[in-house]
Predict the 3D structure of the following.
Amino acid sequence: MKESKVPAEIADLSFFQRFPAEEISRVLRHGRKVTLPQGWPLVAEGTPGDAAYILLEGQLGVWRGRELTTTLGPGSLIGEISLQQGTLRAATVSAATPVTVLRLSSRTFTRLVANSPAFARAVDEVIDNRTTPRTSGVTVEERRGGGSPRYLLICLLCWLFVCFALRRRRVQEPLVRQIPLVGSVLRMVFGSAPRSTKG
C-alpha cells in the first residue's frame, strides 16, 4: 500500500501517531478489517489469546466479571497482553456500539512485533501503561512526605525521642508510658493530633 493511500482517519489514531506511513500500510495489509454489531464480544475473560484488535471506529466496553471497568475509543489496542505474555485474557471486551476493528491473528501480531519497530514500540507502550501501578496522581515521594520540612522535622523529633528514651532507660518501661510523649511531639508539629485517613 502506498503512503498516499493511508487514510487520514487511520493515521490520526493514537496507536498509529508515531508510525511512518509505510509501517501503517504494513499493519493494514496484514490485518483484517471487521465490522461488528453492538454487544458482540471480541475477547472473553479467562480464555487463551488468539488475536489482537485495533479499534478503528466505535466504542468498546471492558468487563471484569459483571463490572464494567472502562470504555475504549478509536485507536485502542485490545488483546496484546495475552499474546505477548502467553497469558489468559484478563477481561471481557465487547462492542458498546457498532464497531470497526482491525483483527490481527496471533501469528500476524507476532510477525509485526518482530519486523515492524514502530509496531513493537507502540505495543510495548500500551502494555507498560496498562501494567504499571497507578497512584491516583500521588507520587511515592508525596505519600512518604516528599522531603518536606515538616516531614524532616518529624523524623528528627522521633530520632531525638528514641535517643532520649534510650539514655533514660525508658525502653525498659511499658510502651504505653511512651505514648503521651509521642502525642506531645506530634501536637508540636501538626498543632493537633493527626487524624487517620483512608487510602
Residues 135-147 have pLDDT under 50 and may be disordered. The helical segments are 8-11, 21-30, 80-85, 106-115, 117-131, 140-144, 149-167, 179-190. The first strand starts at residue 32 and ends at 36.
